[in-house]
Structure formats: C-alpha cells, structure tokens
Specification:
The mean pLDDT is about 90. Helix 3 crosses helix 4, helix 3 crosses helix 5 and helix 4 runs antiparallel to helix 5. The protein is an all-alpha fold and about 140 residues long. Helix content is about 75%, strand content about 0%. The protein starts with a helix and ends in a 5-residue tail after the last helix. It has one domain: Four Helix Bundle (Hemerythrin (Met), subunit A), CATH 1.20.120.580.
C-alpha cells in the first residue's frame, strides 16, 4: 500500500471539510437563496464522501478480503477489518446515499439536508480521517 496516496487524499478531505465550514451560511433560508453556497457545499460534501470511499478502497486493496461491490459496502469492510467503528460505518453509508442523490439527481436535493450535513456531520469525516491515521504503521 502506498501511504503517500492516502496522505494526499486525507489532505484533500481536510480541504473539502474546511471549504464547507467556511462557506456554510448561518441558516437554511440563507442557503436556499445562495446558489454559490449551494454549489460549494454540495460539491465539497460529495467530494468528501468520494474521498473516504477512495481511501477505504485503497486500504482494502492491501487486506486479504474480497473487494466491496458498492460504495457503501466499503465502510462495512473497513468495519469488519477493525479500522472504523460500526457506528461510523453506518453514518458513512448514509453519506453515500446523500452523495448519490446529489451527484445523480435521483431525487431533488433537499437544502435542509445539505445544511444539516454541513452543520452536524462534518465530524464523521474527521473521525474517519483520525481512524485511518491511527492505523498507519500497523498491519495496513
């Protein structure tokens, strides 16, 4: 496994999280009326999910386990390998659902959900990054 790839992706994740923090308006109403903030938040939240999946996939490649067949299952495999908690895996699988809606327009994007994710769930990505970093140097 190439740890430098993971480090680069973790730095990109950090930037995406900070961008959301910096550009999230103070209210849902402000977000609904600010198309630039909508774009910045949606792009960076979906980017954060994708980066976590990419990091997870890279790590799984170094394990002796079958590869996941969906983005969400990436987090199940990481949990089974003891890399992340079951609670974090569950939250990140929900984030994949959000990403799929935002990226593929499966449903209309709910700005109240985007606002809630930006305000209440950025720590999920930070927790993921900490779990990955804490495993560096171990069996990965």
């Amino acid at each position: 496994m190439d740890w430098s790839v993971i480090e680069q992706k973790l730095e990109s994740l950090r930037r995406a999280i900070r961008r959301v923090e910096d550009k999230c308006p103070d209210s849902i109403e402000a977000l609904v009326n600010d198309y630039d903030a909508q774009d910045i938040l949606t792009l960076n939240l979906t980017r954060a999910v994708q980066l976590c999946v990419d990091i997870g996939t890279h790590l799984i490649g170094s394990l002796d386990v079958p590869p996941p067949d969906t983005m969400g299952k990436t987090f199940d495999v990481l949990c089974q390998a003891g890399i992340i908690s079951i609670d974090l895996a569950s939250r990140l699988k929900k984030a994949v659902g959000f990403r799929n809606i935002a990226v593929h327009n499966y449903e209309a994007v709910s700005w109240s959900i985007v606002f809630a994710v930006a305000r209440e769930h950025l720590q999920d990505y930070e927790e993921f990054a900490k779990a990955i970093i804490s495993r560096h140097g171990q069996e990965l």
